[in-house]
């Protein structure tokens, strides 16, 4: 099942739980706006190349739309539509005054020079500058983009609208980025894990963790878990996989990856098959990479008691059902990986205020927001007698539906 079908399915189930009016139900599913533009730029060799760029703006009932921009050769409108919709529910669950959006350009950033990437970014911004904005739609980095991409968007947008640091988040610190933003998603995952384990009288210390994906989110999550006394017994990324039943020395693994650009040949553990990390013996499994990695083929072999969805849509609905029957507790992506967008919100607030927070304040507020969201999800689970995924979706959909009705959507 693709990401859009799975997201729609979860929305339909949540709408049924809430007893949504059929017209409102349909209105909430349809994106507010879909933008598709052609980006033609000169390459460094003088030839010209064209890419398709787009932005899906899903909902603005609760505030400006918010979501990443990804550069990837297989940027798929269906997937981006699903992720835009997911952002609408995610920002509502986190209680941020935003709606959802997502966008991208169908290119391979690895095949472009820095100057070519800059030209593509600036042309894309020129095409959409009047449809994004501080109080309209606030982009952020995603797959294949980074703080430098956001700096180019900020600069190009500012040519039309005056200096506007709050138009994007995930910027370099020097241009108004927030302290703590880089670690935010990983730290949020760890806060979410702590809150869930606490419900069962457990803590991170001495528990065994397997982490699939060792990029920004996975490496930060692993570092914080290691600091809190948890044992990371298996780690993988596209370059390889490492296991150590006594716990991997995460700082040493980070140094190794920085030098070798790979997890291979790390002396502090044994090599293992990439796919085996998902079914490795552990207490907590944290998928931090791609969607759909837990499916009907491998779900029955998962040994973890808890799954924390740090990636977007890592668990297929079929796997969801298999894991539920096994008694595995799943903390859904719509909440578990919301630390990034929460600190993006803090960045936006700081830009509007013209004031920079200390990192301690950012992390304190992140924990407070994630704690409140977890309590809200648990309350919804209790009210509707449902699992955490449905509790989170029902919470998000209910908030957006309520805001839509209050604004007078039928007028």
Can you walk me through this structure?
With 411 residues, the chain is of the alpha/beta class. Among the domains are: 30-163, Rossmann fold (3-Layer(aba) Sandwich), CATH 3.40.50; 183-331, NAD(P)-binding Rossmann-like Domain (Rossmann fold). Helices cover 45% and strands 16% of the residues. The protein is built from 13 helices and twelve strands. The strands form two sheets. The chain has a seven-stranded mixed β-sheet, with helices on both faces. A hairpin with a 2-residue loop joins strand 7 and strand 8 (240-243). The longest helix has 26 residues, at 359-384. The two termini are 36 Å apart. The mean pLDDT is 94. It comes from Gossypium arboreum (Tree cotton). This is Glutamate dehydrogenase. Keywords: NAD, Oxidoreductase. Belongs to the Glu/Leu/Phe/Val dehydrogenases family. It catalyses: L-glutamate + NAD(+) + H2O = 2-oxoglutarate + NH4(+) + NADH + H(+); L-glutamate + NADP(+) + H2O = 2-oxoglutarate + NH4(+) + NADPH + H(+).
Structural class: alpha/beta
Give the proportion of residues in helices.
40-55%
Q: Quick one: CATH superfamily of the domain at 183-331?
A: NAD(P)-binding Rossmann-like Domain
The main sheet comes to: 7 strands, mixed
Could you name the ranges where pLDDT drops below 50 across 5 or more consecutive residues?
none
How does the overall form come out from the CA principal axes? globular
Catalytic activity: L-glutamate + NAD(+) + H2O = 2-oxoglutarate + NH4(+) + NADH + H(+); L-glutamate + NADP(+) + H2O = 2-oxoglutarate + NH4(+) + NADPH + H(+)
Family: Belongs to the Glu/Leu/Phe/Val dehydrogenases family.
Pfam family, one: ELFV_dehydrog
Organism: Gossypium arboreum (Tree cotton)
């Amino acid at each position: 099942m693709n990401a859009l079908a799975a997201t729609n399915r979860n929305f339909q189930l949540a709408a049924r739980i809430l007893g949504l009016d059929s017209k409102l139900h349909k209105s909430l599913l349809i994106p507010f706006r879909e933008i598709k533009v052609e980006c033609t730029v000169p390459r460094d060799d003088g030839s010209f190349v064209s890419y398709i760029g787009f932005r899906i703006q899903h909902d603005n009932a609760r505030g400006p739309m918010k979501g990443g921009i990804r550069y990837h050769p297989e940027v798929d409108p269906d997937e981006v539509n699903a992720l835009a919709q997911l952002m609408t529910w995610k920002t509502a669950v986190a209680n941020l005054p935003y709606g959802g959006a997502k966008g991208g350009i169908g290119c391979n950033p690895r095949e472009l020079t820095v100057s070519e990437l800059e030209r593509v970014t600036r042309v894309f911004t020129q095409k959409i500058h009047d449809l994004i904005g501080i109080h309209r739609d606030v982009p952020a980095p995603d797959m294949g983009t980074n703080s430098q991409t956001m700096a180019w968007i900020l600069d190009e947008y500012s040519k039309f609208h005056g200096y506007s640091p709050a138009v994007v988040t995930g910027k370099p610190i020097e241009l108004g980025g927030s302290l703590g933003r880089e670690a935010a998603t990983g730290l949020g995952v760890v806060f979410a894990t702590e809150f869930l384990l606490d419900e069962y009288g457990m803590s991170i210390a001495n528990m065994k963790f397997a982490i699939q994906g060792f990029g920004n989110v996975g490496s930060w999550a692993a570092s914080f878990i290691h600091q809190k006394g948890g044992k990371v017994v298996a780690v993988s990324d596209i370059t390889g996989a490492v296991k150590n039943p006594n716990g991997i020395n995460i700082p040493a693994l980070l140094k190794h990856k920085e030098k070798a650009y790979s997890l291979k040949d790390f002396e502090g553990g044994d090599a293992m098959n990439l796919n085996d990390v998902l079914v490795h013996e552990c207490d907590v499994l944290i998928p931090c990479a791609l969607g759909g990695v837990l499916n009907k083929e491998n779900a029955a072999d998962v040994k973890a008691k808890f799954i924390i969805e740090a990636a977007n849509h890592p668990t297929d609905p079929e796997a969801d059902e298999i894991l539920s029957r096994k008694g595995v507790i799943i903390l859904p992506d719509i909440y578990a990986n919301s630390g990034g967008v929460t600190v993006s919100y803090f960045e936006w607030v700081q830009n509007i205020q013209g004031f920079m927070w200390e990192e301690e304040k950012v992390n304190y507020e992140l924990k407070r927001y994630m704690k409140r969201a977890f309590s809200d999800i648990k309350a919804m689970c209790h009210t509707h007698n449902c699992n955490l995924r449905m509790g989170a979706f029902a919470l998000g959909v209910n908030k957006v539906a309520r805001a839509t009705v209050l604004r007078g959507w039928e007028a």
